[in-house]
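Narrative summary of target 7.
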Amino acid sequence: MMDFTPNPIAFSAGSLEIRWYGIAYVAAILAGAWLAMREARRRGERTDMIVDALIVIAVAALIGGRAYHVIDQWSTGLDYKDHLLQIILPPYSGLGIYGGLFTGLLATIWLARHYKVSFWRWGDIMAPCILLAQVVGRWGNFANQELYGPPTTLPWGIAIQCQYRVAQYTCPGTPADAHFIPLFFYESMLSLIGVFVMLWLWNHFTARGRLLIAGDVGLLYFVWYGLERSLLELLRSGWDWTIFGVPTAQIVGLGAAAAAFLAILIRRWYVRGHPIAAAGDEPTPAESEPTPAA
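Modeled conformation, tokenized:
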């Protein structure tokens, strides 16, 4: 079992504290930007707009993710309703991924219109990039000693210090030397598998033969992550925002997965009846050349 418990603060200079959580967020953006640049170039898409676009998406996701977290913890945890300044003033941590996905999606729609590019084709590019960012970013949760499950005797269980535990596992009710299921690690690894699955699907079924049309891989992200998060939510400890006793994250995840799957079916039905409208989704000449599987 892992007994190492990280310090959430990477380093400090006077009153300024740099936290591992923030470093992980920046590293996640850089990882997503690298993959976006690689895939856009390989698929014959524009690369000149990627850096500016990712900055816009990252800021939008930060705002949405923070808003989701504040709602989640409004009257519990940090108790934002009685400490309003903690919503915007450092030091703070906490982002809700579904809030970030929502505002990030709105930003992506606006950017596609602004740059006059295909939203669906860029959705296929961005889906594995978002998952890769999640692979990296989830390690910020490890630094904060959060996103863990119940106590476990599994050899990969992680230690959580008493001051970082949720109410149901506080000390001394739960032994100080207890270990917990590392849900952040499970999510990171499942997301990494999703990156390779989506790149493989695009390489073998979108660019060749149109078994999948442009946008299908992008929509599959919501199916993949929605199911992934909903499954892990069954083991998550300390969730607070619920609807009729069910974790909101689980409801949103399953709802997003169902909506995305339905959208895939509807779009395929529409394309069969409107082949001319789908012409813009055809691969560019650069894509028709053989490319190695990622």
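The radius of gyration is 21 Å.
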